[in-house]
Amino acid sequence: MKLDDFVAFFVAKIINRGGDIMNQVEFFNSIAEKWDSTTRVDEKRINKLLSQISIKNGESILDIGTGTGVLIPFYKHLNRDGELTGVDISQGMLNMAKRKFGQLNNVNFKLLDVEKDSIKKKYDKVVLYSMFPHLNNKTETIKKLVNENLKENGKLLIAHSDSREFLNNLHSNADESVSEDRLIEVNKQKEIFESVNLNVTKAYEDDEIYYIVIENI
Question: Residue 109 belongs to what H/E stretch?
């Protein structure tokens, strides 16, 4: 099961049982120890997704919803000397990430809710991998990240290593409370972002991946 599969399936189950954000946190804390052994990382797809924002050595990266640090090895391969900051709502997930990558130079992790908490720093790149559908206030949150946390000419990437149809089907048995926890057609999402004056430079989907790139100009 790939990372997107795992996240979408279990978050749908949690919310379908009437769970709130605290229940999600508790769930991810409880599953953190087993996360890496349960999920499969598609390196080819992830590399293709990250190539859309041209990460360069020495750049600063904010990894939102970092989980157990799945993308950290990919970032370090592209950006050996840059500062990497991973944030997540689950302390259990962050503990795993710290266990695996805490010894690396220029890598740090923070416990926070990106929708509620402020991040007092600007980055060259901001990445949301496998978590965008689970934001409660998608457009507002993305605009806040661009305006407050993205450097001038910086790029924000929304990325999934599975198709929109596949991910949305995993939510099909959930109740109406998760209707917002779905991806919409990529060009429609692009139009929504553009309607609030965000500069979308790339928007693409096929039967393997889904991504949107926003640049702060």
Answer: strand 107-111
The span from the CA of 83 to the CA of 108, in Å, is 8
In one letter, which amino acid is 29? N
How far is residue 181's CA from residue 174's CA, in Å, rounded to a whole number?
A: 10
List helix spans (H) across 17-62: 21-38, 43-50
Q: Any idea what the Cα angle at residue 78 is, between residues 73 and 84, rounded to 5°?
A: 60
Report the number of secondary-structure helices (H) and strands (E) in the chain.
8, 7
Q: Where do the structural domains in the chain lie, given as residue ranges?
A: 42-163+184-215
55 is written with which tokens? 């990460």
Provide the pairing of β-strand 150-160 with 84-88: unpaired
pLDDT tens readout for residues 29-68: 888 888 778 777 899 999 999 999 999 999 999 999 999 9
* Tokens representing residue 8 in the block: 């979408």
* Alpha helix (H) residue ranges in the chain: 3-16, 21-38, 43-50, 72-78, 91-101, 138-149, 164-169, 186-195
Find the mean pLDDT for residues 151-164: 96
Task: Say how far apart CA 151 and CA 216 lie, in whole Å.
Answer: 7
Multiple choice CATH, 42-163+184-215, 3.40.640.10, 3.40.50.150, 3.40.50.2300, 2.40.50.430:
3.40.50.150
Interaxial angle between packed helices 3-16 and 21-38, expressed in degrees from 0 to 180 and rounded to the nearest 10: 150
